[in-house]
Amino acid sequence: MKVSKAAALAVKNLGYHQLGKCNICGSSTIFICIDVNTVRNNMYCPVCKSSSRKRHVAKLLIDKINPKISSLAEVSSNQQLNNLRIYNADVNDAFYKKLHNLKSYCCSSYIPDVQPGKEIQEKVFCQDIENLTFADENFDIVITEDVFEHIRNYKKAFQEVYRVLKKGGYHIFTVPCFFDKPTLVRVDTSGNEDIHLLPPEYHGDKIRGKILAYRTFGIDIFELLEKMGFQTTVDFSNYVDKRYGIFDSYAFCSKKL
C-alpha cells in the first residue's frame, strides 16, 4: 500500500486507533487502523510495522519461550533464549528485525529460479516448504503466517514442518479457517494441473503482488494434524489482548508429540 493512501486511511479511521504496547518491539505506541473491516491484518505498530495478526503470533511465541517477558525485544538479551532454534517462513518482517541477531534464528522465501537451501541474504534462505532442506528435528519453533492456504500439497508441507521440529517443538501458525464446517476446497490439486472448483481467490503478497488461495481450512484441520502427531490448540483474541493491539484474530499452536 502506498504511503499516501495509507496515511489517508489512517486519518479516515482516526477513531479506531488504539493506545497500547507492542509485544514485538516493546514500544508504547498507538496502533494505526487502516481498515476497520480487516483489523486482523492491519492495526499497525508505527515503530516495527507489525500487524495485529503478527502480534498474535508473537503472543503465542512469548507464551512458549518465556511468559515472563513482555516483548520479543527482550529475547536477544536473554542468553537462554538466545539458544532457541527458530525458523520463520517470512522475511524482512517485524520478527526478523528483533530476532535476527539470535544465533539460531533463520527465515525463508520461495524463489522459483533459486536453488532451495541457498542463503540469499544473512539468515534468509530459499526454501520450498513442501521440501525443506533443513535436517530432521532441527528447530524448537516454526512460524508460518497465512501460508498453508497457498500451498498446493499442504499435507506434505505440514509433514515437513513436523520433520524439522524437535520433539516437543511448536508450529505456531495462522490460516483462514471455518470453525463450524469442513475445509472448503477451492482448487482440485489431485492431478498435475490445477482445476478450479470455485472462482479463483487471490490474496495480497508483498513479494509476488498476489497469490492463489487453494482452500479455506475448516474444523477438520485438527484431526489432520492429530493424525500426523501434533497436538493443536487455537487461541482467539480477547479483550485483554487489545492492550497489545491484537484484534479480531486467532492463531494456532501445534506441539510435536
From TrEMBL:
Keywords: Methyltransferase, Transferase
Alphabetized Pfam families for the sequence: Methyltransf_11
Domain Methyltransferase type: 123-173
Segments traversing the membrane: none
InterPro entries per record: Methyltransf_11, SAM-dependent_MTases_sf
GO biological process: methylation
Single GO MF descriptor: S-adenosylmethionine-dependent methyltransferase activity
Name of the molecule in the record: Class I SAM-dependent methyltransferase
Upper lineage: Bacteria, Bacillati, Cyanobacteriota, Cyanophyceae, Oscillatoriophycideae
